[in-house]
Design a protein that fits this description.
The structure holds two protein chains of two kinds. Among the domains of chain A are: 180 residues, no CATH class; 56 residues, no CATH class. In chain A, helix 8 packs across helix 13 and helix 14 crosses helix 17. In chain A, strand 4 and strand 5 form a beta hairpin. Chain A has an eight-stranded mixed β-sheet with strand order 3-2-6-7-8-9-1-10, sandwiched between helices. By secondary structure, chain A is of the alpha+beta class. Chain A contains 17 helices and twelve strands. Chain B folds into three domains: 172 residues, 3-Layer(aba) Sandwich (Dimethylsulfoxide Reductase, domain 2); 189 residues, Rossmann fold; 115 residues, Beta Barrel (Barwin-like endoglucanases). In chain B, strands 16-20-17-19-18-21 form a six-stranded mixed β-barrel. A five-stranded parallel β-sheet of chain B has the order 3-2-1-5-6, sandwiched between helices. In chain B, strands 9-10-11 form a three-stranded parallel β-sheet, with no helix packed on it. In chain B, a hairpin with a 4-residue loop joins strand 12 and strand 13. The longest helix of chain B has 14 residues. The radius of gyration of chain B is 24 Å and the shape is globular. The chains are: A alpha+beta, B alpha/beta. Chains A and B meet through strand 11 of A and helix 2 and helix 18 of B.
């Protein structure tokens, strides 16, 4: 694992063609209306993949379809015959983003815990995940704050980095290594220059975020139950209950199950996406709804994303993909929610030198003496503080990146 | 709409009157909410406390059917305080003096008393709207579905014109059209007196143009309105009908008369994607294809013609509407040989000046075109009346209060309003087959003020019987302060509670739009729904 190779861009189609021999290929394609969507690619010759930006929808629906037949049944003479259904096929997902991979990892936690979901498990076993890191984060992205991008260290089978005329490809799992060894003709050894360039691009990408979303302060406020009822009420008054936020969200996995009769003898059991913003999600048979939708229509959603999942799995289930931004008709997507919740918290200064020093101090990575030594040298040389600290052997680059990603929260 | 939906964001003051925007036009409502978030002012005029009214700076909760006195009161205040736009009135309008004289003869206090709203609130709203550099009005069926619907609309136009809030972007008067293609249906001449593009049937030149193109002589007399056709009774003048994609047995007022009329026909054919209550009465039913199974265009509220592409092949034996029409026409001896919908669009462009530049190949490239779009190089029209009104100068037509056809009395003491719910579309023909939508909104409820409910000993969930002169239905009660005292509200989306059995077929004499919004009813408790 963690092997690294170079794939020339003009070899990409050939590589994907090989992959698609035993597999269905799913990749982002721009349709005639200009929407970038994950699609099943029937022919690489007639379809142009578009890797220029994040796809409009996540690949969630391939693993948890909006409507999925779980089994069909037929009754005869009072005896039911249940017929299992296989909804899966061998699939290569190409061009996923780091947020997409992170979302799939989260879905794994939900569906592969005991009791395992067989339909989901089959689809996951049949999947190869190839992601591409984001050199330039999108307008609404904030995966830096949720620590789910713009590049990942694990979770993918292969991760691509766009180096201009070539892709830097690294494997994150055994299946990725198998791909390297099965089609070695496509892959060239990496040079030091390639490694350096990939590292630099990943570093620059982290600096490219246009939104600063305070996920962690929001978490604290939710944990301490410090969000005012007026805020929840305001949120609820703006919620139309359309479910758009949950449907677009790559980690919203709530579903409902119903039977669809096709005749008096035959029918199907269906699983369909559901949303906690629907009144029917919690309304009981007698008509009473334990959740007062006028106050708490959105409470569970945000508590779940930012607090419950953090408590249970040590990670928020928001992957910072930004897809729900602009989706909400009432203007209450998760970004605005976090902003509203954190309103009043002092905005941090943008003086990165002080911040970096302070952050390293807080993290206990350097002592105050170290910092003063580095600052005085900086006064002489004008070099970047991070570089000086690294030159002095006080911190590693990874440690600096670590505290910076915390800072971005 | 005279404006584009996107323009609402840019208005300084938005006045919404007779529109439950959040539930009926969510795409418009989201722009209103965004505008409020950006510090713009919102005035909502509605007898009910709707979701959008919660965002309003001023909510005028008027008595149902008092829109004209309210608008007149606002205009009188604007006139008295000299907030009118003299230049606009002088340059672009006519007949202002008659409006002015009519307003001066009215007693402001009397007008205000009719509406049931305070003078202060009306004054605030009047000043807020009149002082705005860019003020826009959105209205919906709460304005038109009255016996005085035409007067209501004319009063809105008067208000916009005396303040000069027309003729530029972010201003104007915007009827919010329902559904995705009501505008398109009207554009294509699905009205009694016009050919496509609102070209009058009675105009000789126009008629000749269509006769030459269609190679048939065409009648010069006006057609009948929907209400005349569906409410003529068992022995009406019309003996056969072909109804496409409409369910008048549930959607038209005085539904029992509609049913009687349809049952009395010699022949009824219905085409729909599901077997509706109306289709059940038919001699022949054509299974029609859904929107996803056909190509074509729709024209939305902002006059935007949009191309829709077939996503799946028609399921089973169903056929597209155009297929059904062409096949019928052929068998009736008139060949219509259109290869595809692009060819139909071409004919529309040739015969309909406002659609003159709209072709499928142009629609493919972008997000549709807004008519008027008169030739291939025309970019479309985001807002209307830029340099002049359709008829030249805008004409002021004063209106006076016209009480509803049916006012509450001692026998029928409540006033019933009807509307729609968020999760269902019209009579629920399509949406009620979706398990999720049906779970969200499985039935209609009757909104009744808690005081009224209390005095009738009605609690939440109780079944009540509501009756008008025309019939009665049973429905579940929901006491709520969304409605005022002595007003009731429910939706017509549900076949189990066919509320149009109760509604009054009295119509606006000009538009012939029935007064769905007001009828007098009585309420009786029948039992608990458990």
């Amino acid at each position: 694992m963690n092997e690294k190779f170079i794939l020339r861009k003009d070899h990409l189609t050939g590589f994907l063609r090989k992959l698609s021999k035993g597999h269905r290929l799913v990749a982002p394609v721009r349709n005639r209306y200009g929407d970038l969507m994950f699609q099943v690619i029937d022919s690489l010759e007639t379809t142009d993949l578009d890797l220029s930006e994040q796809a409009q929808e996540s690949p969630k629906a391939f693993f948890l379809p909006q409507e999925e037949v779980l089994f069909s049944y037929e009754a005869s003479g009072g005896i039911y015959d249940f017929r299992p259904i296989n909804n899966s096929e061998q699939t290569v997902y190409f061009g996923l983003r780091s947020c997409d991979i992170s979302a799939i990892l989260y879905m794994d936690v939900i569906f592969l815990r005991s009791p395992r979901d067989d339909h989901y498990m089959k689809k996951r076993k049949d999947s190869i995940l190839i992601s591409i890191g984001c050199n330039t984060p999108g307008e609404n992205c904030f995966c830096n704050a949720t620590r789910t991008g713009p590049f990942l260290e694990y979770g993918f089978d292969l991760q691509f980095t766009d180096l201009g005329d070539r892709f830097f490809v690294e494997s994150g799992r055994a299946r990725g290594d198998e791909i390297f060894s099965e089609w070695p003709q496509f892959f060239h050894p990496v040079t030091e220059e390639d490694v350096r360039l990939q590292y630099q691009l990943a570093l620059e990408a982290k600096a490219g975020f246009r939104r600063q979303i305070h996920v962690e302060p929001a978490f604290s406020k939710l944990r301490d139950d410090a969000v005012d009822t007026a805020v929840w009420r305001e949120m609820a008054s703006r919620c139309d209950g359309c479910g758009g936020c949950a449907y677009i969200c790559p980690t919203c996995t709530c579903f409902t199950i119903f039977d669809r009769m096709e005749s008096t003898e035959t029918g199907k059991r269906i699983r369909a996406w559901d949303s906690c913003t629907h009144a029917g999600f919690t309304r009981m048979a007698g008509g009473h709804n334990p959740v007062d939708m006028k106050i708490d229509a959105l409470r569970r959603r945000f508590m779940h994303k930012l607090y419950y999942d953090y408590s249970a799995f040590r990670r928020p289930s928001c992957v910072g993909c930004g897809r729900c931004v602009d989706m909400c008709f009432g203007g209450v997507d998760i970004v605005k929610f976090i902003d509203i919740v954190c309103a009043g918290t002092r905005k941090r200064t943008r003086d990165s030198r002080r911040i970096l020093g302070d952050l390293l101090l807080e993290a206990g990575l350097i002592s105050r003496t170290d910092l003063e030594k580095a600052l005085s040298r900086q006064a002489d040389t004008g070099e970047a503080l991070g570089k000086i600290l690294m030159d002095l052997g006080l911190v590693t680059c990874a440690e600096i990146l670590g505290v910076l990603s915390l800072e971005n929260m | 709409m005279t404006n584009s939906i996107e323009e609402l964001r840019g208005a300084e003051v938005i006045m919404v009157i007779g529109s439950n925007t959040t539930e009926a036009h969510p795409q418009v409502a989201r722009r209103l909410v965004a505008a409020v978030d950006n510090g713009k002012n919102l005035i909502v005029i509605d007898p009910r406390r709707t979701a959008i009214s919660e965002f309003a700076d001023i909510h005028l909760q008027i008595r149902p059917g008092t829109d004209i006195p309210l608008l007149n009161a606002m205009m009188r205040i604007i006139l008295d305080e000299n907030l009118i736009d003299d230049v606009f009135i002088e340059m672009r309008t006519e007949n202002f003096s008659s409006l002015r004289d009519s307003l001066y003869t009215m007693d402001l206090n009397e007008l205000i008393a009719i509406t049931g709203v305070t003078a202060e609130a009306i004054g605030q709203a009047a000043r807020m709207y009149a002082r705005a550099q860019k003020g826009v009005i959105c209205y919906c069926l709460g304005i038109t579905q009255h016996i005085c619907g035409t007067g209501n609309v004319e009063s809105i136009a008067n208000l916009a014109m005396i303040t000069g809030n027309v003729e530029q972007s972010f201003t104007g008067v915007n009827p919010l059209r329902g559904q995705n293609n009501v505008q398109g249906a009207c554009d294509m001449g699905a009205l009694p007196g016009v050919f496509p593009g609102y070209q009058p049937v009675q105009d000789l030149e126009t008629r000749k143009k269509f006769e030459r193109a269609w190679k048939k002589s065409l009648p010069e007399n006006l057609g009948m309105t929907l209400m005349q056709m569906t409410h003529s009774g068992r022995d009406g003048q019309i003996r056969a009908m072909f109804i496409m994609g409409e369910n008048p047995v549930l959607s038209d007022p005085h539904a029992s008369l509609v049913k009687e009329t349809l049952e009395g026909l010699d022949f009824l054919a219905v085409s729909d994607i599901f077997l509706t209550e109306t289709a059940e009465l038919a001699d022949v039913v054509f299974p029609a294809a859904s929107f996803a199974e056909k190509d074509g265009t729709v024209t939305n509220s902002e006059r935007r013609v949009q191309l829709m592409r077939r996503a799946i092949l028609p399921i089973g034996k169903c056929r597209t509407d155009s297929d059904i029409i062409m096949e019928l026409s052929k068998r009736m001896g008139y060949r219509m040989d259109y290869e595809d919908m692009a060819e139909v669009m071409e004919e529309i462009a040739l015969l309909t000046p406002i659609y003159g530049g709209i072709y499928h190949d142009r629609l493919e490239k972008d997000w549709g075109l807004q008519w008027p779009c008169t030739d291939r190089n025309h970019p479309g029209t985001p807002y209307l009346h830029k340099y002049s009104f359709t008829r030249g100068k805008g004409r002021f037509v004063p209106a006076e209060h016209h009480p509803p056809d049916e006012s509450p009395d001692s026998e029928y003491p409540f006033l019933l309003m009807t509307g729609r719910v968020y999760h269902h579309y019209h009579t629920g023909t399509m949406t009620r087959t979706s398990e999720m939508l049906e779970r969200e909104a499985p039935r209609a409820v009757l909104e009744i003020h808690p005081d009224d409910a209390g005095s009738l000993n009605i609690r939440k969930g109780d079944m009540v019987k509501i009756s008008s002169k025309r019939g009665s239905i049973e429905i579940e009660a929901e006491p709520t302060t969304r409605v005022m005292k002595k007003s009731l509200y429910t939706s017509f989306n549900f076949r189990e509670t066919p509320v149009n059995i109760l509604t009054n077929p009295a119509m606006d004499p000009v538009a012939e739009c029935p007064e769905y919004k007001i009828c007098a009813v009585k309420v009786e408790k029948v039992g608990h729904n458990e």
